[in-house]
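Lab notebook, bench 4. We co-purified these components, and the gel suggests they stay together. Before we commit to crystallization screens, I want a quick structural picture of the whole thing.
Request: model the full complex, all chains together.
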Amino acid sequence: MYPPKLDKIIHLFEMLPEVERRETLVSYADSAKKQEPRTGEQFQLEDVRKDEECADTVGVYLHVDENGKAHFRMTLGPEVQTLTRAMTAILCKGLEGATPQEILELPSDFVTRIVGAELVRVRSQTTYYILTRMKGICKVYLHRERKMASAA
Amino acid sequence: MATQPASYAHPDALVDADWLEQHSKDNNVRIVESNEDILLYDTGHIPGAVHIDWRTDLQDPVIRDYIAPQKFAELCRRNGITPETTCIFYGDKANWWACYALWAFRLFGHKNVKILNGGRDKWKADGRSMTRDVPKYPATEYPVPEKRYDKEVRAFADEALAQSRNGKPLIDVRSPGEFKGDVTHMPEYPQEGVLRGGHIPGAKSVPWKTATNEDNTFKSASELAKIYLEGCGVSADNETIVYCRIGERSSHTWFVLTYLLGLDNVRNYDGSWTEWGNKVGAPIERGA
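Here is the predicted assembly.
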């Protein structure tokens, strides 16, 4: 149902008691900077913007390889909240190698299983924001591909 | 022209970082971090600080209200706080939530409260020490407060309406766009389900940030007096009600008026715009 890497992360979080769940989220948040684009990397789509659902600018960079697999890079402004940083690292790792179509069809119920019902309840906008942005860029990519295919 | 005060009315309500470093291990001091970012404390905090979340710790999960006195006593007990403990609050967002938590402590009659001037951002920017170690304090015997001081520090919608009708001071501390009714949330924040934009009729717009310097510290007593006493008719003779969207930014202004300018007749309307903007029968005004 979920891409295998994401499935593994979900299972990991489900086994954790609350304190360790928070520690693991913070540890993922710490690693969010590693998801930034590296020198020389090329992307089919880049979506850098600041919108109302998030406290600072978030950049989403999508590269789809010759096998149709998606690879994401992300940039986060300094005001982006810790939970958003955590979700960035989790989703970049968990969705690495999934296809844009799989990402677009991904049900969002797994977010509660990772973050926990309490954090979702009190910070719902924050927890879903990055997934929404990743789905958004996949949608644009697929739309563009279909347009190019029909033009050909 | 009114005489400008040379110093804060209650200068001891503010501490600076040097003071906090010297007193952080005092037995009667407890440092409390309160943030908007719910995991920020976990990423590092002032050594010895405990974490109190404005929503999960201070608000009732079922009724839109604050916790009952019993729950407040339990919160204090598990954080090693006694009625005599001096609680030093600090946090992100220029101390919005720190002021909110301080105000909530006052709601339960806890009197020894202070704010770390400049909050978390200044502490961090100054290169002061942070830790991820979560302190453990022996549980205390905090007695259940006999009452909540709603009447003294908190205003409700009907009181805000009376204030509006009687032409008494109402201060709207939201951004100018929210006040005018162009938006229903602060810039860069999600819309939180308010039907109408605008402000309570007669309210004056004094955004919370008017009270702070660039480094999030509070402006001087004379500057604050000019803004509030001269600029918007706030005085010791008239009750004042402050509000924002959910009560956190107005807690910041409530702290300024109560502790820095020494007005003891200021109340925070915590229902704020999320209540007023949706409330059946509540009048609004739009525009500047």
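The beta strands of chain A are 45-49, 58-64, 70-76. Worth comparing against the SEC data before the next meeting. The domain at 4-151 of chain A is CATH 3.90.1010.10 (Sufe protein. Chain: A).
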